[in-house]
Design goal:
The protein is α/β, with parallel strands linked by helices. It is built from 10 helices and 19 strands. The two termini are about 20 Å apart.
Length: about 450
């Protein structure tokens, strides 16, 4: 188990605001002591889980080869620059998710492998990200950050609650972890002592403390601190501007004119901007070690999002907003491929930002496991006998990328075996998890 202690960490403080510091070479930021195996202030391993619903284009989710020679299908082409830091895992599946074989029953236990209750009851299992948060997450201000870009759906579909389609992170078998879709509130949770809207900038509150710190660190650390503070300011401004434009893009009115008051500000109208802000918050949470565990649900399974930001091939002169995501997934056309690539571009964006942040001898991406998955392979087929799984990053030197791992024709190909392997790299080692009793040794 990690020896980092939240109580001994270094922060910038101001009235009602606490900001954890990024890694600095001349300042013991994370409050740990050196051991014979590890120097002081070595960066911890982080976990990020990204989810996009309804699977992918059936013919374009593939990878083959190794390292720089790895070839990628069209869906994965946005990750071309990260082939040497990517693990492509094919053939894993979730046996319990196959029993209902609809969106809800395929999604609600994706990260737990647990049986799903139907008939109006809600019961799944504690997801592996939250199992990590209960132990590994104790050393940080925010044990886990659970973000989303689409509201949860409380309805029922074919005898299963649609809450299963809306949540992949579960704090207990009966409690989905609250999903934060408002960027401003997610920002507040990271940096403010109380999660309430406020007018004062986080940076303005800690500016005096930051100036004091700046005088006592190296010139290299001064540049790193300035870059970090600039990135926080940029996210603050984008959240403020985005919140002025109205509602989430997936929502469509049924009237030509409103018959109610305008919804309150808070969610970016542009889905692309909404996702990018959430991606930036994920990076900031890791960069400051405010949290080490984040899930980002880009959309729901059975999603109602539309994508007018993406040009349509089939509807010349229009965006891909003529059909909701779920219905679009039933095709394998060029518009569906464009939406798939848009989701993977978010993963690439996060990876690029993480890889640009140096933490001693490694980058933040080298110290992270970035998992992107979905609850079915192809939306057109609803097939989940094998699931789409990629992992980027190095887990602090414990994970080797540039590989394709094939399990389709092997026994014991439970997805939960991968989760046991990932938890092991974060020094959390349950004997079993979900339907798995052993790790994937190749990982």
């Amino acid at each position: 188990m990690s020896t980092h202690r939240f109580s001994r960490r270094s922060f910038l403080r101001g009235a009602g605001v606490t900001m954890a510091l990024p890694w600095l070479e001349s300042h013991n930021v994370w409050g740990d002591e050196p051991t014979k195996d590890r120097p002081a202030s070595e960066a911890p391993v982080r976990l990020a889980v990204l989810f996009s619903g309804n699977g992918f284009h059936s013919k374009e989710w593939w990878a083959k080869g190794e390292g720089k020679a790895m070839e990628l299908g069209k869906v994965l082409e946005p990750l071309h620059d990260f082939r040497e830091k990517m693990l492509f895992v094919r053939g894993l599946y979730n046996a319990e998710a196959m029993k209902g074989n609809i969106h809800s029953s395929q999604t609600g236990n994706l990260l737990s492998g647990a049986p799903i209750a139907s008939g109006g009851d809600i019961r799944s299992g504690t997801s592996f990200d939250q199992l990590l948060a209960q132990t590994y997450g104790r050393s940080t201000k925010v044990p886990s950050l659970v973000l989303g870009c689409e509201r949860s759906n409380p309805s029922v579909h074919k005898n299963y609650s649609m809450l299963y389609s809306s949540h992949i992170s579960w704090s207990s078998p009966t409690t989905p972890t609250p999903l934060e879709i408002y960027p401003a509130l997610a920002f507040d949770r990271l940096f403010k002592d109380e999660v309430t809207p406020g007018d004062r900038s986080v940076l303005d509150a800690v500016l005096s403390d930051a100036q004091d710190l700046r005088r006592g660190i190296s010139s290299s650390d001064q540049r790193k601190l300035d870059e970090y503070l600039d990135s926080v300011r940029d996210v603050e401004k984008r959240i403020e501007n985005a919140g002025k434009r109205g509602e989430l893009q997936g929502w469509r009115p049924t009237l030509d004119k409103p018959n109610m008051a305008r919804p309150a500000d808070g969610i970016p109208q542009d889905i692309s901007e909404h996702m990018r802000i959430m991606c930036d918050l994920l990076v900031l949470g890791f960069q400051t070690d405010t949290t080490r565990i984040t899930t980002l649900k880009l959309n729901n399974d059975h999603s109602a999002l539309r994508f007018p930001n993406l040009p349509s091939v089939s509807q010349i002169g229009h965006g891909i907003d003529y059909m909701i995501h779920h219905l679009l997934s039933h095709s394998d056309g060029e518009d569906w491929l464009s939406v798939n690539r848009f989701f993977l571009e978010q993963t690439a964006y996060i990876a690029r930002k993480l890889d640009s942040i140096q933490e001693g001898p490694r980058t933040l991406l080298d110290n992270t496991m970035l998992l992107h998955c979905s609850s079915m392979m192809a939306g057109a087929l609803h097939n989940n006998d094998q699931l789409p799984v990629i992992v980027l990053g190095g887990a602090g030197g414990r994970l080797k990328g540039g590989r394709v791992l094939e399990y389709q024709d092997k026994p014991d190909r439970q997805l939960c075996r991968l989760f046991l392997s990932m938890m092991d790299k974060m020094e959390v080692r349950p004997k079993t998890f979900g339907d798995a009793a052993s790790m994937l040794q190749e990982v």
